């Protein structure tokens, strides 16, 4: 880690609709596959529409659009990091008040996404909530997985894959921007909301009250990421432009932080060694940050751009590939990080 990375634009793609989320498939056979979600608001009738775009990375600086699913606007996309009954699954948080789960299938030598199942969101005063983020749990002792999703009314809903409602509870006073499970511990989940609070809940306590609650972030908590290698470490980001690292053994305060000079919408650990964190920093493009929270590299054109999505390709190569997506100019960009990670 002595050399700082250099980042070069690999390919740029026009998603037509504003792009707000991008996720690479973590399953070994399909690490060259990724999805990008879009969100378009018709100001006249307030109708939200969007697309789930399925891509494959090809040689010679090319990506290929395999499929585009048109429908509700996409708020978040998350691949399951486990294979379930032989299926590779992708969960989508959609503006139509529901969660859809798709399976990645091979049909006549081409890949495609097919509907696997869906879940309706709760209602308050007969008004449906809008999903904002999704998280997959690690399998429990019985091999069962849960999906958690946060919503626009401050609720967290946890369901399992056989359509059984596990629990629905109020976590925040305003939007619950983010929910994530602790990696390897399916009972523990973290939430962040527009009330500036970062919280932890335990399913074994029936989510009745938070295990801890912290208001160190000065604005809404928008992202949270649990490290699978550094098992006690959690990274959070906020509209306050601060990335914070937490040790779950002492949650009274974060143990390190850095200002990235842009609201932090997504944080992603580098998937192989987790020596770096990738930040989608909204109006201040994207950053690669090391585990000491030094900003190693900032990249991405900032003019007329709003970076909501960023992710690492899971291919284990010396030259890592990073994807970002920006909202206003509806662009999906792929970058090559020229250093050994």
UniProtKB/TrEMBL annotation:
Pfam families: WD40 (PF00400)
Cellular compartments per GO CC: cytoplasm
Example GO BP: protein histidyl modification to diphthamide
GO molecular function, one term: diphthine methylesterase activity
Gene3D superfamilies: YVTN repeat-like/Quinoprotein amine dehydrogenase
E.C. code: 3.1.1.97
PROSITE patterns tied to this protein: WD_REPEATS_1 (PS00678), WD_REPEATS_2 (PS50082)
Enzyme class: hydrolase
Residue spans of the WD repeats: 214-256
Protein's recorded name: methylated diphthine methylhydrolase
Organism: Cinara cedri
Upper lineage: Eukaryota, Metazoa, Ecdysozoa, Arthropoda, Hexapoda
